[in-house]
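ligand=RFL
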Amino acid sequence: MGRTQVGIVGAGPAGLMLAHLLHLRGISSVVLEARSRDYVEQRVRAGVLEQGSVDLLVESGVGDRLQREGLRHEGIELRFAGESHRVAMTELTGRAITVYGQQEVVKDLIAARLAAGQPIVFEVDDVAVHGLDTEQPSITFTHEGRDETLTCDFVAGCDGFHGVTRGAVPAGVLSTYDRVYPFAWLGVLATAPPAVDELIYANHERGFALYSMRSAQVSRLYLQVAPDEDIDDWSDDRIWAELRARLETVEGWSLNEGPVIEKGITPMRSFVVEPMQWERLYLAGDAVHIVPPTGAKGMNLALADVRLLGDAFAQWYAGGGGGLLEAYSSTALRRVWRAQHFSWWMTSMLHRFGDSDPYQARLQLAQLRNVTTSTAYARALAENYVGPVEV
Ligand code: RFL
Ligand code: PHB
């Protein structure tokens, strides 16, 4: 396979965006991905881009389709106790979010990479990293039945929560901070025109529900379910009945139903590993931090990490020294922890935590009343949701 400047493991938003930013600065990289191109382009995940993520995609030249097809949202709705309240994000912050599927971001980045003639190797196996504490680390893997070695200056671990790069750091170096929630999300993609044009986050005694969308024809919906829930127990009819029960709680509002085209269950966890770097390994995105999706922060954090890494590698290769590389972990962790707090807070406010704590349920309602009656609380939510400018 030869050598490159930065070896990137993982072709999710983090790895692909990093490869793109490096290419724009004339820095070579090779992206190694365990799955097929088709698989990563079809994988349904996040859908909300902060203003800063949109700006990064547009400024780096991969935002054309996003600007044409992305849905700009200036508010969200909070639904609870038979009432619905709008949080006017743009009025409160001057910024907005854009709804655009993560797999569309991935498609756009892969297309840009291939158009630039730059390498992505799909369907690699047995990836292992070596010599991270030397000046010439390497990545070994198999591809199409052959053993390969890629030598590089740096390794970027962008291989998600289940990746291998984080595990290459010697025991005792990294500290882990995590929380597992007593529920999961069942996510559904349906061919049904969205019934509203803003997202609805619903706190309901049967559990949390979220109404989102992908286009004028496709709705994206989520239900809080048990962590060990079996997807086979959820027929389309049962899914729609549960969505109706949790979302049709205000007069005159009803869902548009249609065929379910994709469904899956996602566990919920909060997870951070510190520091985000060891010797010549730089970790980014879900490989070092996970948030529960309630704050819509995961993909945005992945993009924010690699924006910093792109600048840091550019400084190093331009002969400007390793200042930004050294500061990478501590700089990135400020945003990471802010998003951890926001995602935990939104999750805590909106989900049902079981019957054992009625006090907690009353506190949730008090919190929701605060957010929907106090401009200060609403602005705090909105600032975090659209993405903090200062971290
Ligand atoms: P990814 O996207 O997981 O990409 C990692 C890539 O690495 C590959 N890989 C390997 N490649 C080579 N060798 C190995 N040994 C490898 N092991 C793994 C994987 O195949 C994969 O292609 O991580 P990245 O790039 O850090 O991106 C993070 C985001 O994907 C994630 O944070 C978001 O999807 C989270 N998330 C959301 N984030 C948001 O910002 N806004 C949202 O609205 C939002 N909603 C969500 C979400 C995640 C969800 N799920 C399914 C977890 C909604 C859901 C339901
Ligand atoms: C989505 O549209 O997939 C989505 C929206 C908001 C979230 C999580 C996921 O908080």
